[in-house]
Amino acid sequence: MEARNIDVKSEISCQHLYKSFPGMDGNVTEVLKDVNLSVAKNEFLVILGPGQCGKTTLLNIMAGLDSSDSGEILLNDVPVSGPNPNLGLVFQRMALMPWKTVMGNVSMGLKFRGVSKKEREEKARYFINLVGLSGFEKSYPYQLSGGMKQRVGIARAYCSDPEVLLMDEPFGALDAQTRYMMEEEILRIWEKAKRTVVFVTNNIEEAIYLGDRIVLLSRCPATVKAVYPIDLARPRQFTDSRFLEVRQKIADNTDLAL
Amino acid sequence: MATRIVAAPGKIRSKNNSLVWLSAASLVVFFIIWYGLVESGIISKALLSPPAEVLTTFISKFSNRAPDGATLGAHFKTSLTLALTGYITAVVVGAPLGLLMGWYKKVDSIVKPIFEVIRPIPPIAWIPLAILWFGIGLPAKAFIIWLSAFVPSVINSYAGIKLTEPVLINMSRTFGATNWETFLRVGVPSALAMVFTGLRLSLSSAWMTLVAAELLAATEGLGYMIQMGRTLARPDVIIVGMLTIGLTGAAMAFILERFEGKLAPWRRS
Description:
The complex is a heterodimer of chains A (258) and B (269).
Chain A: E1 10-22, E2 28-40, E3 44-48, H1 55-62, E4 70-75, E5 78-79, E6 87-90, H2 102-106, H3 108-112, H4 117-130, H5 146-159, E7 164-168, H6 176-192, E8 196-201, H7 204-210, E9 213-217, E10 224-229, H8 241-252
Parallel strand pairs in A: 3-8, 3-9, 6-7, 7-8
Antiparallel strand pairs in A: 1-2, 1-4, 4-5, 9-10
Chain B: H1 2-39, H2 51-60, H3 72-103, H4 105-118, H5 127-134, H6 138-162, H7 166-174, H8 179-216, H9 222-231, H10 235-263
Helix pairs in contact in B: 2-10, 3-4, 3-6, 3-8, 3-9, 5-6, 6-8, 7-8, 8-9, 8-10, 9-10
């Protein structure tokens, strides 16, 4: 465990996580190796790592969708043993239900929890408005652009009112232009409705633009290589000299193709 | 975006119009060749009736019982009742069974061995056994039709729900949905397109088997009418029966498609 921020209660933490998968050739592939990290309340933590390094596996374990071979996830000091309404997930591939409207998709989590229709639509409308999609409540996903779809994904995760939002390369499938816009948007949304965020990416600029802290993972098996607090004021500029300094420092420590 | 929409409809309509003309022209050519072959004597009138005679027979059969013992309406009603009885009962059992088999491994393990053996048996191979069990009334034929419609509806529903996106299943799990809730709210809707493919295939399969069943054992129905046309050497009656079968099959497929459009508006893209 990192010995920092002792005064701030960590909201979610990973303790000595190990995970391996049986490979096709019969060998066992080690994916996670002693991963330790802790995220403070309302912190925006970015996990940065190369492709195929086990970031998604780590996030799925944190979300309770997958289990680790050993080690545990603590949410407010209680071990996570399965999907938990306090953990909201935003998926890389949007994962919207094509047969549901924006309203239906956003309010879906509340429906599973048996919230009344009136209450869940009211709540969903609030978050649809927050992500800037007012007026699109009745649209189907096929009628939306990639950026709009991911706004729906974010609103959906928010709508169940989780304490922690886990985001798995949410902008990975977007074109560069939309991606910059969504990076600004996610910060705007987060400033307005603060949650603890764990944001996974393989994009170093995105990581520095967004994160309060960056956790750098090594190539497979993934383990925490370094932790970088980013104390640049927001909104950050990609061309700012201090931004580039941080970028250089992190880049020197990675084997990412940069 | 607005300009694109304003510019488009005229163009699309004129293109659609020319396509409609093409279809009409192809039908006209078809009838001319048919007419020519018969009138020129290349094909004897005893073997193939000219189009006009078929039309006359078609119209007269609405009220005329001769020569096969019942009006076209009566034959049609018998066949349709039979087909729909077999089809609807097959689909009501088959589609849910396929969905459950595709989602729950236990159901799959129980049903699959039996299903896999029954599946390759052509439905008409059941006819002798069906007659032995049920006689030659409606139940025997409905049973054959049931079998022929059952198989495609199971297979396609099964394949459809197997294709459910794992990420959608995970998403519903993060919201704390139970496996049954996920099945109902994620698996079933995402399989719907394939379920409908199954319903369409089942329908054509049921309709085809119907004629086979009626050819062998019936006292009324479109298949029976065709059979009588052969016995009485009346090609016009045969063709009227065949056309009725073709048109009804096309109409049912069309209705089913409309129904799918109503049920699944998100697939209009």
